[in-house]
């Protein structure tokens, strides 16, 4: 398990950074918000290594608490690493934890790739289980969640409409959420992409299997 990497950020992409370590090895790490990192000096990037049959993918975090929160999200049934990093692009761990604590399904449903059922699962699986992370949560406030479920300024209604269409076509919630989460950072889907374009792209992925 790679706990963290230390090095200099050589490149920042829409959904990832490239970190060059002192040994001259450059790692590509997928991040919720790549521009959170300081490029002016050597940084520590906390990591999570996802190992699948067809790929090994590194995810990076500016703070250890973000790394810990990411692992907690993976405990939720139906949430994988790519969906978890997408969720974290929509709000801070503190805001997400607050929404879970307050059982705010509406706020959670605004997060990238999260529908009503996934929001309910997050509440069921994580409520009262986040205290150990040491998050600074102001329980008297309201969760601050970005309106875009893709974390890039797009309109939440567009993606909700796409979710509804895919559901009407007979796809399961798990298939839909996994597919939409996988479209996060897709450059072919602009900020103002209509729901028809999102549906078309999702269907290409779903039918490809």
Report on the architecture of this protein.
The chain contains 8 helices and 5 strands. Helix 6 packs across helix 7 and helix 7 crosses helix 8. The protein has 209 residues and is of the alpha+beta class. It is globular.
Short key terms for the protein model shown above:
5-stranded mixed barrel, 8 helices, 17% strand, globular, alpha+beta
Query: Radius of gyration over alpha carbons?
Result: 17 Å
Tell me the strand percentage band.
15-25%
Low-confidence stretches: 147-155
Compute the average pLDDT: 84
Record the strand order, biggest sheet.
Answer: 1-2-3-5-4
How many helices? The count is: 8
Q: What is the helical fraction, as a range of percent?
A: 25-40%
The H/E string reads: EEEEEHHHHHHHH
Structural class comes to alpha+beta
End-to-end separation in angstroms reads 30 Å
The number of distinct β-strands equals: 5
| Shape assignment | globular
Q: How would a textbook summarize the main sheet?
A: 5 strands, mixed, barrel
Secondary structure blueprint with pairings:
Blueprint: E1 4-12, E2 16-21, E3 26-30, E4 43-51, E5 56-61, H1 64-73, H2 81-88, H3 93-101, H4 105-109, H5 116-126, H6 156-168, H7 173-182, H8 195-208
Parallel strand pairs: 3-5
Antiparallel strand pairs: 1-2, 1-4, 2-3, 4-5
Characterize this entry briefly.
The protein has helices at residues 64-73, 81-88, 93-101, 105-109, 116-126, 156-168, 173-182, 195-208, and strands at residues 4-12, 16-21, 26-30, 43-51, 56-61. The protein has 209 residues and is an alpha+beta fold. Residues 147-155 have low confidence and may be disordered.
């Amino acid at each position: 398990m790679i706990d963290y990497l230390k090095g200099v950020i050589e490149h920042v992409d829409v959904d990832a950074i490239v970190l060059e370590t002192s040994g001259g090895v450059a790692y590509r790490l997928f991040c919720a918000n790549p521009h959170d990192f300081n490029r002016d000096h050597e940084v520590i990037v906390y990591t999570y290594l996802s190992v699948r049959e067809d790929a090994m993918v590194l995810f990076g975090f500016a703070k250890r608490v973000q790394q810990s929160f990411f692992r907690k999200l993976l405990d939720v049934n139906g949430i994988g690493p790519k969906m978890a990093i997408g969720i974290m692009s929509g709000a801070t761990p503190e805001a997400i934890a607050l929404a879970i604590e307050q059982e705010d399904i509406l706020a959670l449903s605004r997060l990238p790739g999260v529908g009503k059922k996934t929001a309910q699962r997050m509440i069921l699986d994580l409520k009262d289980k986040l205290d150990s992370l040491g998050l600074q949560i102001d329980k008297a406030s309201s969760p601050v969640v970005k309106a875009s479920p893709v974390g890039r300024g797009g309109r939440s209604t567009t993606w909700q409409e796409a979710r509804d269409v895919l559901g009407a076509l007979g796809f399961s919630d798990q298939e839909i959420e996994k597919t939409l989460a996988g479209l996060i950072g897709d450059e072919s889907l602009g900020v103002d992409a209509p729901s028809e374009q999102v549906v078309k792209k999702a269907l290409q992925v779903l039918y490809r299997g």
